[in-house]
Amino acid sequence: MKHLHLVPAGTKFDFVGKKLMFFAFSVALILASLGLFGTKGLNYGIDFKGGIMMEIRSKSGPADIGALRDQLGGLGLGEVAIQEFGEPEEVLIRIQRQDGDEKAQQTAVEAVKDVLKDSVEYRRTEFVGPKVSEELFMDGVMAVTFAIGAILIYIWFRFEWQFGMGAVIALIHDVISTIGIFALLGMEFNLSTVAAILTIAGYSINDTVVVYDRVRENLRKYKKMDLAELLNKSVNETLSRTVMTSVTTLLALLALYILGGEVIRGFSFAMIWGILIGTYSSICLAVPILTYFSIRRSDDEDEENSEIEKVEGEGAV
Question: Can you give the pTM of this predicted structure?
Answer without folding.
Answer: 0.73
